[in-house]
Amino acid sequence: MSTLGSVLAWPEDVATLRIGFMGAGRLGQALAWSLAQAGLRVVAVSSRQEAHARALASPIKGCACMSPQAVVDACDLVFVTTPDSVIGAVCDGLTWRAGQAVVHCSGATEVGVLAHALAQGASIGGFHPMQTFGDPHAAAQSLPGCTITVEAEQPELMQGLLALVQRLHCLPNRLPVGMRGRYHAAAGYTSQFINALFDQAVRLWQTWGATEEEALRALLPLAQGTLSAIQSAGVARGMPGPVSRGDLSSIDKHLSAITPMGPQMLDFYKTLCAVTVPLAHQAGGIDEAQAQQFTELLKA
Ligand SMILES: NC(=O)c1ccc[n+]([C@@H]2O[C@H](COP(=O)([O-])OP(=O)(O)OC[C@H]3O[C@@H](n4cnc5c(N)ncnc54)[C@H](OP(=O)(O)O)[C@@H]3O)[C@@H](O)[C@H]2O)c1
After folding, report:
1. What spacing in Å lies between the alpha carbon of 116 and ligand 1's midpoint?
2. Is residue 151 within 8 Å of residue 177, measured between CB atoms?
3. Which of 22, 63, 138, 293 has the most CB atoms within 10 Å of its CB?
């Protein structure tokens, strides 16, 4: 039997690992298919509903559906891909052994949630792809090029997880222990908070009778242009808009236009606008005095 800590020579032997999944949801399916596609041996899966386990297993040659304990017994490396809230309970309910490893894929959950497996001699870690997993087929397509945050105290497991990242054509990121709350909050700004920003913009479009579809047709290319500008020039220098040009009167017009939409929307706009002022200053688009004028306008 292969073991993670001592027998396998990482990363050359990563292809010989027997990999299992606990939880056949959006991420579980996409990751299992991607690993299999990359030539890794995904051999076992368990999920709450057998139909979902079968959906994960059926496209993968040699992958079988089995009980949670049977997955643990059959595999060298087990991915717990259940919702965050049950990762600990799922791990606690199983018997682990020395030489195998268990990792979860949560961004916010500390690896210590797998302490029960560690106490039984298994290695524990984290493997968090920084990507949105909706439709598993689309998610599997979008995985190459993404960053995957890996965490493991045991050097052999760390080496193995890095080898998997490489096999998936992803980029590795290492996270110090205890930083997951901050790290996951940071990810939120560039994932679900983008939805929050679009919501505000679409609501303004809807005030003159435009549909969400019409608004998105216009707004999405604009957002993509901003992303390209950030990619080429950075956060501050890649920032477009009136504040970056020192255009105080446009911001004044925005505030008047948004006021009838209610205090919550106005406050949110002002808060966002206030964050852009030091960015514009940092990029050299406005001087100290202009920055002060913006700040006073937003406080008024
Ligand atoms: N979705 C994303 O965008 C994303 C991105 C990065 C990281 N993650 C992380 O990936 C993990 C999974 O998220 P997800 O979005 O894939 O969730 P999901 O789509 O809700 O899938 C979770 C799966 O876990 C199974 N499950 C639930 N309770 C279980 C239990 N007690 N025992 C065994 N299986 C159980 C469910 O089973 P059945 O379907 O069989 O009922 C479901 O298939 C989470 O840690 C999440 O933070 C998700």
Report:
1. 20
2. yes
3. 22
Q: Which residues of 91-102 are buried (b: 16+ CB within 10 A; e: fewer)?
A: beebebeebbbb
User: Which residues lie below 8 Å from residue 109, measured CB to CB, with a gap of 6+?
Assistant: 84, 87, 126, 180
pLDDT at 10: 56
What is the number of structural domains in the chain? 2
User: Which residue is associated with the tokens 């406050």?
Assistant: 267
Calpha distance 63→52 (Å, rounded): 13
- Write down the pTM of the prediction: 0.89
Query: Do 132 and 263 belong to one domain?
Result: no
* C-alpha of residue 20 to centroid of ligand 1, in Å: 14
Question: Residue 5: what pLDDT?
Answer: 47
CATH number at residue 43: 3.40.50.720
Task: Please report the atom of ligand 1 found closest to the CA of residue 191.
Answer: 3
The residue-averaged pLDDT of 132-141 equals: 92
Ligand 1 centroid distance, CA of 84 (Å): 8
The last residue of one of the domains, among 152, 179, 206, is 179
Closest C-alpha among 52, 10, 3 to residue 156: 10
Whether the pLDDT of residue 276 is over 50: the answer is yes
Collect all residues with Cβ–Cβ distance below 8 Å to 96 and sequence separation of at least 6.
72, 102, 116, 117, 120, 121, 122
Q: How far is residue 22 from each of residues 25, 46, 62, measured CA to CA in Å?
A: 9, 5, 16
pLDDT band at 123 (very low <50, low <70, confident <90, very high): very high
Residue 233 CB partners (closer than 8 Å, separation 6+): none
Containing structural domain, residue 125: 12-179
